[in-house]
Task: structure prediction
Amino acid sequence: MAKRIIEDHRSFDPTGSAASGLHSFDGILPDYSGAALSRYTSRARRDLKALDRIAQTDGLSRAGRLELGVLRGLLLSELSEIDDQRLPRAFPFYFLYRLSIVNYLLRKYAPLDRRLRAVGKLQSQIPGFLRVLRGTIDRRLADTCYEMAEMAAAGILDAYSRELPDHLADASPVVRALVERTNETAKSELKDLVHELTTDYKPRIKREFALGRRKYERMIFAEHLARIPLERLSEVGRADMKANQTAFRETAKQIDSSKKAKEVLEDMERDHPTEENLIEDTRGMLEEIRQYVIEHDIVTVPSEERAKVIETPRFYRFATAAINPPGSFEKIAKDAYYYVTPTEESWTSEKKEEWLRHLNYTTLRNISVHECYPGHYVHFLHRMRVASTVLKSYYSYAFTEGWAHYCEAMMVEQGFGDRRLKLAMLQDALLRDCRYLASIGMHTAGWSWEDATRFFMENAYLDRLPAEREAKRGTWDPGYLNYTLGKLMIQKLRADWEKQHPKAGLKEFHDAFLALGAPPLGLAREHLLGRNAGPAL
Result:
């Protein structure tokens, strides 16, 4: 049954399957018509009932229960996205990001001609794919969902117009001619879509987006396989923000008692790399952090391979920094890329300085803990060692982002860095606290995204523009509370595990935790502590 569910999931999401390293799905676009979505959700509900019947039996091993739980989490999360969040209908980005060709251009898992043939195959399906999009999405979109659709359509069109031709220059004449034809058709289709979005959808935008309490609580259960009452969620989030605010002010005073906290941050920002040394300095920083993790027995680093620090590709420069690891099933192109976004030649000297202040050494160090050591990259290295196909086929948002965010605080707790790093860590923690509480407020308590914008400005030391960007993200990504929620659940799991294993070290807990892959955190808790493990939060 597990094999059939995984195969069904892979066929439903060929984009994700190809990205995971299953290249038989290269160049295939999904069918997200109303009929196809209905068929898939009906099968998912039947499969969940069958899994629940199996769970009632006594014959399952501990490993079998873990796999069964991961399958339940996978199906429940997809039902939440399709039925409750209505992403295929309310959020056109759900369709459009599948037109990205980033992995085909970047990852050298096959000769260039083969990868470009996959691009041509994908582009040849775009006319039909966009017809399905038009027939599926709501005529009235929330304003923030419309903005994401417009950005995605324009961004994909830009990649086809500017990035793809650079790679076609190195292709064989036959493949170049093929993809030039499909690219012209694809660009024309996307230009038509951009025009339609502006003329037909923009005039109809609405402000309503909230899930409501019942759907929000179902989303939380699907993500964690743990029932956490909304009141408890809110209480814990407010307490964490209050604690971090106090620690932030105290740490700023310890650094310089004569200045306000924001002035201390501004002083910290002045210590930054030059534009010429940004990438090389980051490489050296990663080695320093990696060595600290190993020497202090924080977690096993199960490979001598290094994440490759490179300038962020142009089509990805909306991000400050990010890790791009290979998929769980990739067998050839196993390089992980740590993107760091540089200044642009066209920028004024003032704008370059502003960007480099944003990427000051202290903030860059905290980001690198999150993205690489011992955050996402180390987690990826452990996931590559997982043998179970089921465990490698799903990853929890909260486990993945919760682990990386947990690492920021844990590394400071383990003595890494100075007070400035602690201040940067706490600033990022306050940002994630605001995401947590804004998500709950916007989807269950009637907040508008304007209310959330003010909340970010008042509590996360953000200016208007980044505060608005953060608030708007929460309208279509209510799960972004999982950075903080995941961190808090991991911290509680670790405290309870240490009570059960008083003689064990921190490294032993971290290795046992990462060996699970990335299952729902309620399931991880049950697996590590037993079936009567107590509340997850």
Summary: The longest strand covers residues 308-311. The CA atoms of residues 158 and 315 lie 8 Å apart. The chain has a mean pLDDT of 95.
